[in-house]
Design brief:
Chain lengths: 274, 324
């Protein structure tokens, strides 16, 4: 990646990240128009054929075009990664805000829960939740929400605690505003930025998580097209035909890199201004 | 009837092993439209006394220990929080020292003023916006339509102070407490801000408690002044009487320290010693270790406020000597 730009290195990070993500989003949205072949229809004659002029990324064990499957797979993975951010964000921000502002029991309980949750490895907890609610897409969203809220809750709680001591909150109380009004209209907008930055950088994490769960067979089920499943299906042929796994793997890496760069660039820019 | 009458107000800050009385036996009254200066050096308890009036003390460990705060005939020191809230902003408005810190940094100043108006007057958004713009015009902004959408950091210190005045007055309070409104501004801007406050007072008729360490500010704008030292009021007087003849050695020392009383080139005067820590107050008169008129009685006797005339009080045991 050497897209030399006449703008500072700082915003170049953001620019490159957004560019990569944007390209993937366009490819995913336009998959039905761009994809050269039907991703679900195989041709036995083409099974395990290597990359060629007709099939740029080759074909898998059932003779399906890997490029076409990659494009359709992007839809599933981007959707899962982006959607899974919202439930834990909303839950975590709500709990953190209440804990930080009111303190007491409303602070003590979530903080203990937060400490307990934080002391387990992320992935182990996700698997534990899925083992309770069952595999599939709903299970994925529920488990991310159940485990992921703690990070946002911690950020919001600390932000709220420091903001509520702030002069402008006292000034707002001097104007006669009620507690809930100050909390929602003045503290929340000020506390949200760091949590939002965290959420954007968490997209890369949920992408990897979605792919991993799908790879393990705990996420989307057949016949859904998805990168993690493409890798698990191609795994058996890794030695003779590595391209079946290589291209989805590269796609995951590139998209995760894009989210990461975008998040880092955005954080730098917003925090620099803040 | 006095608009605000504070009597024997005491404020304590509680710590695990001890408590500190930051404001001790403070009494004063203010009439509608009056400008009262509350003067004293840092730590004298001026700000705490003012914030105690609407019970928004800094930190969580401050309490009103005793005393009454009668506002328009009602003792608000003992009102429950819910009943006191309508007084805040609507009856008694506050301007704190640091104007930059008092605005929500992510909301335009116009929206903040409009919020106050909409909240207190139950107006819809468009009406509140119109009134907020009118307020910005009243405090002297050049282009209020446009500046409505500015954020706090886009204003200079002097302009921000003007906007702060608009915010404080937006709910038409009867009393404005301005805590060092001109600290940190240069002298010309200071004069403009004080002028603006007086003009608005003339137009709208609210009373002002002006907290300031600067007797020069009192000389310019106040009708009367109360001088605080180490948590107590040591002298109260109408401005002209105070400036012509202070009846407490501390007020006298403050006046001597005013730079404009000195000949050009003369060294600046200061008051010898330091204000005592509230945790270790001297016995007797609290000012006696720094007082040039000190005598034996000052070291032991409790210096109560003495009524010097119907309008004046002094906490000096020897005020008669100063009066001569």
């Amino acid at each position: 990646m050497n897209l030399a730009l006449p703008i500072g290195r700082r915003s170049a990070t953001l620019y490159h990240g957004v560019l990569i993500v944007l390209v993937w989003v366009i490819l995913a949205l336009g998959a039905s128009a761009i994809a050269p072949y039907d991703p679900t229809v195989g041709n036995d004659l083409l099974a395990m054929q290597g990359p060629s002029a007709l099939h740029w990324f080759g074909c898998d064990n059932q003779g399906r075009d890997i490029l076409s499957r990659l494009l359709y797979g992007a839809r599933t993975d981007i959707t899962m990664a982006a959607l899974a951010i919202f439930p834990p964000f909303v839950i975590g921000c709500g709990i953190g805000l209440v804990a930080g502002y009111f303190g007491g029991v409303s602070d003590y309980l979530p903080i203990r829960l937060l400490d307990v949750t934080g002391s387990f490895p992320y992935f182990i907890l996700i698997l534990a939740v899925i083992s309770v609610v069952g595999p599939g897409q709903p299970g994925f969203y529920i488990s991310v929400a159940a485990v992921g809220w703690v990070g946002y809750a911690r950020i919001l709680r600390n932000q709220t605690r420091s903001l509520r001591q702030g002069e402008f909150v006292t000034a707002a109380r001097c104007l006669g505003f009620s507690g809930p009004r100050i909390l929602l209209l003045h503290i929340l907008p000020n506390a949200l930025l760091p949590a939002a930055i965290q959420a954007i950088s968490d997209i890369a994490l949920t992408l990897m998580l979605a792919v991993a769960l799908n790879y393990l067979g705990l996420g989307v089920q057949a016949p859904a097209i998805e990168w993690g499943r493409m890798i698990s299906e191609g795994q058996a042929y890794l030695a003779p035909d590595p391209w079946i796994c290589f291209f989805p793997g590269a796609a995951i890496m590139l998209l995760a890199l894009g989210f990461r760069l975008a998040a880092d660039g955005l954080a730098e820019r917003l925090e620099g201004e803040g | 009837m006095a608009l605000l009458s504070v009597s024997h107000l005491a404020v304590d800050f509680h710590f695990p092993r001890y408590r500190i009385r930051a404001v001790d036996d403070v009494s004063f009254t203010i009439e509608p439209g009056e400008v009262l200066g509350l003067v004293g050096e840092s730590g004298a308890g001026k700000t705490v006394a003012c914030r105690a009036l609407i019970r928004l003390l800094p930190g969580r460990n401050g309490r009103i220990a005793s005393g009454r705060v009668d506002f328009a005939g009602r003792d608000i020191a003992r009102l429950p929080e819910e009943d006191l809230r309508p007084y805040r902003g609507r009856q008694i408005a506050f301007m704190f020292q640091d104007s930059a810190a008092q605005f929500d940094p992510v909301m335009s100043v116009g929206a903040q003023i409009a919020e106050t108006i909409a909240f207190h007057d139950n107006l819809d958004h468009a009406e509140a916006r119109g009134r907020a713009i009118e307020w910005l015009r009243q405090v002297g902004l050049a282009d209020p339509q446009h500046q409505y959408d500015w954020f706090p950091h886009q204003f200079s210190g002097g302009l921000r102070q003007r906007v702060l005045i608009a915010t404080a007055l937006a709910a038409s309070p009867k009393l404005l407490i301005a805590d060092e409104p001109t600290t940190g501004l240069d002298v010309t801007v200071q004069a403009q801000i004080l002028r603006l406050l007086l003009d608005l007072r003339d137009k709208l008729g609210f009373a002002i408690i002006l907290v300031t360490p600067d007797l020069g500010v009192v000389a310019e704008v106040c009708d009367a002044a109360a001088i605080m030292y180490a948590g107590r009021i040591v002298e109260q007087a109408p401005k002209s009487e105070l400036l012509s003849r202070p009846l407490h050695p501390y007020s006298e020392a403050l006046m001597r320290a005013l730079p404009d009383k000195l000949a050009p080139g003369a060294p600046l005067l200061s008051i010898a010693g330091q204000a005592p820590s509230l945790a270790a107050l001297p016995r007797g008169c609290r000012f006696h270790p720094r007082c040039p008129y000190v005598e034996e009685a000052c070291r032991f006797g409790d210096a109560q406020l003495a009524q010097v005339s119907p309008w004046r009080t002094s906490a000096c045991l020897r005020w008669q000597i100063l009066a001569q």
